[in-house]
Amino acid sequence: MSRSFNLGEDAPFRAAGQARRPQPLAMLAATMFLCMADAQAQTEDTPAALGTVTVTGTRERAYRSVVAPTANKSDTTVKETPFSIQTVTRELIEDRGVTTFGEAVRTVPGVTPQVGWGGSNDRFRLRGFATTANLKNGFRRSVFAPVDELANIEQIEVLKGPASALYGRFEPGGVVNLVTKKPQDRARTGFELTAGSDDFYRATFDSTGPLGDTLRYRLTGSWQDNKSFRDFVGARTAFVSPVFQWKLGDRTRLTAELELGRRNGSFDRGFGNSPLFLRVPIHTNYAEPDARLKNDSALGSVVLEHRFDNGWDLRTGVQASYAKTDALWYPYGFAPLSGAASLDPQVNRHKQLSIDEQTDTSLMAEISRRFETGAVGHRVLLGVDANRDEWDFAADANLGPFGFPTNLPINLYRPVHGTTVAGPLQPYDASNYKSRNVGLYAQDELQLGSQWRLLLGLRYDRSRTQARAQYLPVSGTLVRSDDAVSPRVGLTWTPSAAASFYASWSKSFLTEPFSGMLRDGALPAPSRGSQVEIGTKLSLLDGRLEPTLAVFDIRRRNGVVSDPDDFNYVIQVGEQRSRGWELDVPFTVTPQWRLLASYTQLKAEVSKDSDPDMVGKLLANAPRRSASFWSTYDFRGAATGLSAGLGAIYVGARQANTANTFELPSYVRWDANLAYRFGAAQRYKLQLTVQNLGNKRYYDSGGAFVPTFPGAPRSVMATFGMTL
Question: Is residue 427 situated within a structural domain?
Answer without folding.
Answer: yes
